[in-house]
Structures are given as structure tokens and as C-alpha cells.
Task: structure prediction
Amino acid sequence: MKPAPFRYVAPRTRAEALDALRRYGSDAKLLAGGQSLVPLLAMRLARPGIVIDLNRIGDLAYVRPARGGVAIGAMTRQRAAEDDPLIASRYPLMVAALRWVGHPQIRTRGTIGGSLAHADPAAELPAVAAVLGARFVLANARRERIVDAADFFTGYLTTALGPDEMLTEIRLPPPPERTGWAFTEVARRHGDFALVGAAVLLVGDGEGRCAEARLAFAGVGYGPVRVPEAERALAGERVTEALAAEVRRIVSRSVEPEGDIHATADYRRHVAGVLAARALIEAASRLEVRT
Amino acid sequence: MGTRYFGEPVRRREDPRLLTGRGTYVDDVRPPLLLHAAVLRSPHARARISRLDASRAAAAPGVALVLTHADLPPALREPLPRLIPHPALVHHKTQYALAPGQVRHVGEPVAFVVAESRYQAEDALDLIDVAYEPLPAVTDLEDAVRPGAPLVHDDMGTNVCAEYTQRVGDPDAAFAAAPHVFRERLRMDRGAASPIETRGVVALWDAQTRELVVYDSTQAPIRIRNYLAALLGLPQNHVRVIAPDVGGGFGPKIMMCYPEELLVPHAAMRLGRPVKWIEDRRENFVSMNQEREQIHDAEIAVDADGRILAVRTRFLYDSGAYIPYGIIVPIVASTQLVGPYRIPNYECTFKAVFTNKVIVSPYRGAGRPHGCFVMERLMDRVARELGLDRAEVRRRNLIQPHEFPYDTGLIFQDNAPLIYDSGNYPALFARALELIDYEGWPAAQAAARREGRALGLGLALYVEGTGIGPYEGCRVTVEPSGKVYAATSVGTQGQGHFTSFAQIVADALGVDVADVTVTTGDSGAFGWGTGTFASRAAVVAGNAVALAARAVRDKALLVAARLLEARPEDIELAGGRAFVRGAPARSVALGEVAVAANPLRGTIPAEWEGPGLEASRYFAPPRGTFAAGCHAAVVEVDRETGALRVLRYVVVHDCGPIINPLILTGQIEGGVAQGIGNAFYEQIVYDPDGQVLTQTFMDYLLPTASEVPPVEIAHIETPSPLNPLGVKGAGEAGVIPVPATIASAIDDALGTRITQMPLSHQRLLELARRAPVGAAAGGAA
Ligand SMILES: Cc1cc2nc3c(=O)[nH]c(=O)nc-3n(C[C@H](O)[C@H](O)[C@H](O)COP(=O)(O)OP(=O)(O)OC[C@H]3O[C@@H](n4cnc5c(N)ncnc54)[C@H](O)[C@@H]3O)c2cc1C
Result:
């Protein structure tokens, strides 16, 4: 478990990093927290010619207010995001989900950008990004472009990132007023990648009904899986046991997971429905009613 | 003799060193000029090697040596040693140091590269040109015994390498006449011991003195030394094997020998430079021995009151591709199955079967978890079928305290009669029921059910054969400083021997435990021994330590008597001094006694039997001593996701007089954690082609602190009559009944009938979805 030979650069600035990416392109790998990349290197499953270490770049780790929402630098440690007061006040769903990511040790190294760029199908953050409507800032040496969550995750462990591009920032739009939220998951052990995870965001109408519902699942497809039919069924409705059961059926019917040694496709389909219903009930209990 | 330390929770004296990173594990041994080795392993479960050309690797940067089978000296080209032969083991196949022309499991060593760094060694592996012709493989245990199955070893004509039956009474007649017979097909799947420190070897060869020093993360340094001397053509006196701090063994580190244990010293001798090989985690999953896979067809015959008339099991034992360690595991499984119960008629038959998988040898429990699982599943089944209370059925069948010694009629793994020496099973069972509040359980369960929660209580009892021979030894020395040194060659892999053995010595010699230094696992310090396995070190080495310390004490009394002009009977040892009983002012420091025992001039009396305060003693038990215990657990199952939570876990344990309760607690807690792994998390998964799908800790799931509940432990102490300290082993106890206990608890929660371990979220969900809602397994009546 020793990596194959590779070259190593540790740029000090974003520009230097992008310049290195421009030069080496697909022969290069960016190193963020290393929690996914380093094992791949050690097992020689990844054999980049050069590793570009982002850890010395000062201005890639931040959480700051941006037009009513927040902007999160790609190198922000997952643990820092979890502890961030701004994120806690505006996106408690993200904090709740982060607690399911590995263990504190992992999150202290692992980054927000690394998790999203790595795009593990069972990772929690992509589902959170999906329901929060996150936008991804992708930069190369010449330009920046902005991609929606729906367009960022393009396949199994693949994203819209080009070989010369770096994810620099994640932008979360202002949270709607009166939201109810929940994140829940089933993993084989605490801290494992999800067998199935469910993120729910309900936008309340002030009367206890959902004006809008967003559901996204981890572990049941290559990226975060939205279930539009369930979201439609919820729109304008009050969440009741019966409606939750209906959503459960829709979700189990709609998702198309794959099986692996940890759980079959059937298991995941079933549990996606179960978790959808549970998360819905929990999210609805947080919906504020106008007084 | 004062017993100040025996029984006290003396803190582990090794911990400050280990916890502050000052331990010496094999990888911490870094001699100058060290070279590093890497192993090329078969990617196929079964294949013929049609071409093997290492010339490019040999020419690669930094490479010092490349070895294939053809490059080895004759002694290393032979199959590796056959350990523990048995008349029933007719095909005692062992692997080779490097595969000669055919490989039989993924991970089997094919070539060995030594280079200036491990990186370069691994780079060179990529350059070895091997052509494999894949052959059909068999990985499924049941498939392997079907006619026409691919053969793991062509020359055998079958995959069954041993078939063995033991019979007590007349089971056929008992089954034929019994009013009730219940059958179960019970299965346990493969697991891995996963010590935190993988295997590793460093070898240093001194060409001038022709002496070989080997650091080896092994449980059996003496036996490794003996094989190394024989296979490398060296006198035993010129080979020193040191098992330094060992980061866990759990059984698979007692193999003599793994290929690397020979290849590393051989390479060091060939190159005249020290060589290191550290098994990495991926290698560990395909090259360290594994265990657990068995399939039992078991049946029980009972009368109308649930009294056992007969038990029978016929089972398949997966041995992997070779069977170097012999048939110890299935013998243990089949003989320990009977547990604490009176079973007048019993029959066990097993077939040991080759498959194209990693070799199997004992792993903590070593067949006992299987036996216990089978027996306890049968007991739950009887209770349910007869509508009896689970605890009552067990109680009716327990061997009673007055029945000891109790001869089971079986022959144990040490080839000695399996006779339970002492115990009090009703007492420990009653204690466990009390701790788990068995009386209050029906109400507690019903209350939880009203909240929609599925809770279950599980129970399991076991008997554990421990402390088998042949022997261990110890040398105890009092130095002129008054400090005491004890050397025994059993290895230590976390059992706390540095503390528990020191306690025994300190008590015998009346010194502070901090003044006793214990050396274990170094053939240079003590040259005779067997190893740390089968829950035997505290019993066999512990008693050798006691005997040696007592011999030194006797000698100290003689010498001190002379110095103090008193009779030896009147001398006492305490506080590091010898003094005359009743006249503490007449005293002399123990160190001075040691000096007097080794005078510069004059004579030493014949009854001193030599100079110094030193003695070596051996302890050779006639047969094993039998510990026992009961586990009880409360679990909660999420019916909709198959998630399992262990809410309470109770252990009542009897290993005789306890040397150190703190260490014992650690042993039990660790065992329970591994048992929980065996029950719900840990499974080595092979695909039909023999590829291992679990080669990282992301896929092979060890339970963590989040999954393992606090363990509530209570003890009862029935001494063994078979050894001076009266102790019994405790190393494997924690793990044995956990799968049985968890299965029993889940059945109680869901009304299921668990027949397979490990479970998982998915399996539990499947079971829950099939189970009738609201059903329970006959709990407390
Ligand atoms: C024991 C353990 C348990 C874990 N459990 C979970 C879990 O439950 N849920 C979960 O979601 N994750 C889990 N992880 C993964 C963890 O969250 C990783 O941190 C994350 O997947 C990758 O983030 P990283 O910063 O470590 O990235 P790295 O490992 O450094 O990089 C991962 C990949 O992303 C690329 N990359 C990184 N940053 C950028 C960027 N800014 N722009 C473009 N590409 C980039 C890298 O080139 C690489 O290909 C676990 C990891 C471990 C070791």
C-alpha cells in the first residue's frame, strides 16, 4: 500500500494551483483533505503523474455571508463548516448532515469541496447541496463558471469539473423563510457512508402546509437523487401520516439504486421510502406556523 | 505467604509506554542498512503459472533481490511444515513459501522482492512478468463437497481432507426413541481477526558469528525459532526470535510458519543486510489466516419436559486452500458444543473441506462460537416448540455443582479426555438472569412494544476449554539490586502479562510489583515454550511463573536463614526484605540475600542447588481446565431498516480465582466487541470466482465504540484443582457466546428463527419483513 511514484507541488496561491492544473491537466490530482484520495493513491487505484496539494493555499477556506446566503470556500474543513455559526443559523440541515460524515477525525481533515468533487454516490453533502440549491464555482486558469447542483453531478464519481478545473467555492442561496428540514440515514456503522440517506427541506406556507418540498437521497444513484413525483405530491399539502406513507411508496417505487456487498438494491429501495417518511415527519414538525 | 497483589486491579504497567507511543512493534525496529520486502500475490483463486519472469524487476532501481520458487534453496522449496497431525486428517496439505507453478487462493505468494525502500519494492512487483492460466475455482463450502466440484488439489480426487466422528452413548437409539426431535441448519460465515498490527518480520543476519535475530509479530516465538533453525540449517542456539510488543494476535499469529517468516530471514542471510517486511492491510485480508465458516446440520432430542436425550451435529468446516494447522478448529467446535449441559448421547461428525480461499486456522474462540451457537439455538428451539420458558429449559439441563469432575466422554483438542474440572453453572446462570432482570423482562418488553419498539432479550451459556499443555516455563532471578526479573517465552499480544505475571512474582517474593520486570516472547531470554493461544498463558505460563518464584523464595529463605542465624521456617519475605518472624529488626534486604547466594569466596552448600537467587520451573498441566460463563443482552431492532442496537450486555464469567480484575475486564470487553462484529458486522465476502470483495476497513466492518455497548460484568470464582494457582483461562471467553446471545435476542424481539451469522441490516430487514408483527419468542413464561 505505497503509492506509485508521483510528483508533488504545493502551490501557495489559487493562481499557481490553476496554472499547475492547466499544465498537467488530466495527469494531475488535486489534494484536499486526502481522506479519499490518499487511500486511492496507497492502493494504486489512482496513479496521477503529479499531485497538486491545495493545503498551503490560504484563501480557499472560508465561510462568508453572500447576498443573504453563504459562500463556502472549497478547502473549508467539514468540521469547520459543522461548527460555523453562520451555517448553523441559516442551514441547520447542513450541520445535521455533516454529523453523519465519517468521524470528527475524518471531518477535521476532509473538506467540503473534496467531498463534493469526489462525488461518492453515498456521500451526504451532495444530497444537502441538492436540496439547498447550491451552486458550484468552477475555475480554470482562464475563467470561472457557475454550475447548479443538478448539473454538477454527472455520473458515478464524476462531476462537471473539467481536467483543468478546480472547485473553488460553493454558494448557498438565502434560505427561504419558515423551512422545516431533516436529515436521516442508515449506515452499517456510525460514520460509514450511507446505505441510504435522506435530506428533506420543506418550505412552509405559514399555515402548516408545505409551499414547496425538496427531497434528495444519497446511496440510491450516482449523485443526489431527487424524486419530483414525491415533491409534487407534497406541494401545497399538510404532512400527515397518510401523506408520508404515500411519499414512502412513491420514493420506493421511483428510486433505482444498485446493490453491493453492504445492501441489495431492494434493501435500498425499501429503506429510501422508510427514511423519506421519517424525515418528512421530522421536517414537518419543524415547520413554523404564523402566529 | 502474603497475597497482596493476586486479585488486585493493579494498573497495567505496560500502558504508559504503549499509550505514549514508546512501544516497540516490529515496524519500529529500524536497524541501519535495512532493506524492505514486498510480496507478489496471486490475483486468481486458482491458476497455473505458465510463465514467471522476474528479470525486469531484478534490474529495477533499488532492487536487491527477487525470489521465485525456483530461486529458493531445497528446504524452502518443500511444502511448509505440517502442524498438529491427526489420524483423521488424511490430506495434510500445506502451502509453499512461494507458489511452484500453481496458485490456490487470491493472495498466495508468488514472488518476493527486496529493495532499498518499500516503495521501490512495490514498484518492482509491477515489473514481474507472470502469465496465469486461470482454472475453475470453488469458493462456496457446500459447492466444494458436491460431486464434480473443481478440485483445490487435483491429486486428492476430493476436496474433503478429513472426516472425523466422536460419539458418546447411543445417539441413534436415543433419537429413534425420543418424543421430540428438532432440527436446524445453522451457518456461520468467514471472518478475520484483524489485529491492529498486521504481521511483520525483521531479520538481522551476522555473517561473522553466523547468528540470526528475527523480530516477528508472532504468538509463538520459540516454535518459530525451531522451524527457522531447521529450515535454514542453523543451530537453534544461533537463532533468536523476538516477539516484541505485538499489536494483537487473536490466533492467526500462531502459524508456523507463514511464508514471509521464512523468506525474510532467508533474504537477510543471502544479502548480508537486515530485511523488513510489514504486511499491509490489503495483504492482511488475503494472506493472514481467517476463520469462522462452518455449516451445521444439527438436531436435538428431548423429552416432554425439555430434558436433553441426545444431540447430533454433522458439519462442514471450511479450511481454505491448505490446512497447515490441522483440524483443531472443528475438533474444538464439535467438543465444546455440548456446553454446560448434561447430554447423555452425543454425536459430532465433521468434514474439513478445501476451498480456493485464504487458509483457516484458529481465531479467538476457535470453533467455540460455532459450537455455542448451535447448542444455544437448539435450546431456544426446544423452549419455543415445547412452550417452555427459555431459562427453565436451560436450568433443567445444567450440569450440577456436585457432578464435577464431569466427564463429557469426548476427546479434546489436546488429545486428552474432555473432563470439566470444576464449575458452578446454576450459580452463574442465576446471576446473569438477575443482572438482566429476566423476571421483569416480559413487562419491560410489553411496555416497549406499546411504544412501537421491538426489543428482545437473549441468553447463552458456554463452557470454554482453556489452559491446555504441553507446558510453559519461567526463570525468576533476584538481582543484587533486589530487583526481580522473570523471563518466560510465551508471547504477549495485549494480555497484560507484564503486570499479571509480575503480581504473581511479587506475592511469592514479598517485593513491590514495580520491582518485578517481566520479559516475554524472546527466545534469547527463555528458550523453551509453546506459545500464547487457546486461553492458556495465564494458566500454563502463570503457574510456571508461580512455581519458579516459589522456588526462588525457598532458596531465599535458606540463604537468609544463614545470614540471620535463624531457621528457614522462621524467615519471612516482605517489603523487599527477609526478616525473622517476630523480630523484624533482624532483617536483610533481598538484594543482599542475592549477593550472599553468589559469594566471591568460600563454598555454596549443596542444598542451594547452585548459585544466586534464581530458578527455572515448568508447568505441564495434565489436561485443560474449563472456564464457563453466561451472556445476556437486550437489543432493539428497527423493523423498517433492519438496524440493530445492543442496549444492554451482561456477562457473568467464571475463570477461577482472578489474578487481575482490570485486565480480565479488558479481555472480556474486547471479546464481546469481536463477538458483536461476528454477529452483525464482520464478514469476509468472496465472489464466485474467489475474489475477495472485502479488502479494506470500509468494506470489512469492525464494530467501533459506537456499536459496542458498555459491558456489565460479574464474576463467580470456582478454582481449578488442576493447577497450583487454581486459575482458568479467560482470553477467548468474551467472544464465544455473542452470536448465540444476539440471535436469541433478535428472535425474542421479532419472533424470527435466526439460523445464520453474521447478520446485517439487510438480512435483519428481510427477517423482520417476513416475521409476523407482534410475535415474540417464548420469553419468560
Ligand atoms: C473512515 C472514513 C469515513 C468516511 N465517511 C464518510 C461519510 O460517511 N460520508 C462522506 O460523505 N464521506 C466520508 N468519508 C470521505 C470524506 O468525507 C472525504 O473527506 C471526502 O470524500 C473527500 O474530501 P477530501 O477533502 O478528503 O478530498 P481528497 O481526498 O483530498 O480528494 C478527493 C477527490 O476530490 C478531488 N478534489 C478535492 N478537492 C477538490 C477541488 N477543490 N476541486 C476539484 N477537485 C477536488 C481530488 O482530486 C480527489 O479526486 C470518509 C472518509 C474516511 C477516511
